[in-house]
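Incident log, structure service

09:12 report received: a user says their structure output differs between two submissions of the same chain.
09:20 pulled the input from the user's history:
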Amino acid sequence: MVTALRCFFRYLRNKERISNDLAAAVPAVANWSLSSLPKYLPAGAVQRVLRKCDRRTSLGKRDYAILMLLARLGLRGGEVAGLNLGDIDWSSSQISIHGKGGSHVSMPLPADVGEAIAVYLRCRPRCSNRRVFVRGRAPFVAFSNSTAVTGIVRRALNHAGVESVCKGAHIFRHSLATELLRRGSSLEEIGEVLRHQSPNTTAIYAKVDLTSLRSIALPWQGGTR
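09:34 re-ran on a clean worker, output below:
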């Protein structure tokens, strides 16, 4: 809303409807680090989305493989879209991820994720493109960015009837981190799985561990009210 208001004021000044620079008078929105809770899906909802994938069609097999990479490995949408055929080492069950800031890491490829990718590759449209995931209709080109992955996630959530405030690929990344924390994984371990460069990025997930937070909460001076 603030951005739109500034643009509107710049437009009015450009059209000489106003003489003062009102855009400069619009205050910035306060944003505090770690002030919000990560949005996530319960484990049951994630499994429901995966089960509802129609794996009888080539598109369904593609979407299922993409959702498995998001849900099981916590990959970002852009990382899934940029995955190349040569990034998968089938003999050692490893997958190379090209992450943010030009980072390049190798991760274990779980058997169920590898199977989902292999099933899709058997019916993948024949083309010279080296990207793993391509369009389902001609021309069979790779996804240009993470927008296509976001669309796949949005359709999968709607098809499964799962309500979510966030409908992008990151909802599965947050859900994986939250589930790992619930199972007893440390923040350091979660940071390694999600490939966070800073521990502060992982620290936000400590806020969803309400059981542990209750154990360290100080008593309220006003009593139990």
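09:41 both user submissions now match this output. Likely a transient worker issue. Closing.
09:42 reviewer note: The mean pLDDT is 89. Residues 150 and 168 are 5 Å apart (CA to CA).
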